[in-house]
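Lab notebook, bench 4. Still working through the backlog of constructs that have no structural model yet. Next entry is a single chain of 215 residues. Request: give me the structure tokens for it.
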Amino acid sequence: MANQRQQRSPLTLRRWCLMTLSKKELRMIGLDQIRQRLPNWPSELDIAKQSARWAMMAQSFYCASVVLNDEMEKAHRQMHIEMENQISIDLARREEVGVPALFCLAFSLEMAIKAALIHQGAIVELQTGQKLPFSSHSLSELAKKIKGLNLLPVEEECLERAANIIADGKYPVRKKPCDAKNGLPGYPNYQNFLRTAEPLYERLMDLATAVGAQQ
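Model written out:
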């Protein structure tokens, strides 16, 4: 049985651990205890240095943005059809996901930028407990550090908008509310934002997953 366990792939071992242990048990046991049975189990630092993990999360947020926007548009069309009828709670909820859709799209750009930076060796020397060197949301400045990415002015503007959406999209107002400013959020239209964001996102993901480029 021990030999069979050692012959399992790391992915199978991780699945086995997640299926065998409850979330509470996983929180209670330490990395040293896990590695007694699963020697290749990654630490948090190991995962931080894996650009594929960042790229996967970027893709998750990008897909979420598309799904949310599609649902909002379907609900919007259906709401116009059912104007004379009582609008269902489910329909009203689906019609209100525009800002989360934008937030997920903007955050996918941030994750793709950081995936590309990690793929090019940005944190290869990072030591345990050290702060990630790109924990800010200054996306255009971070993107300029990526080798092989030459931002167009319209893409820089797109990243500035994305940074604002990430910073302010979690609240009904800006982080520093001001009497001199109106209370209407300045969010871009999703489709207009997507026209620039999508090709930029694809370029970033290409750089984040380029074969032979990782340091």
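Notes after review: Residues 14 and 41 are 7 Å apart (CA to CA). Residues 51-81 form the longest helix (31 residues). Flag for follow-up if needed.
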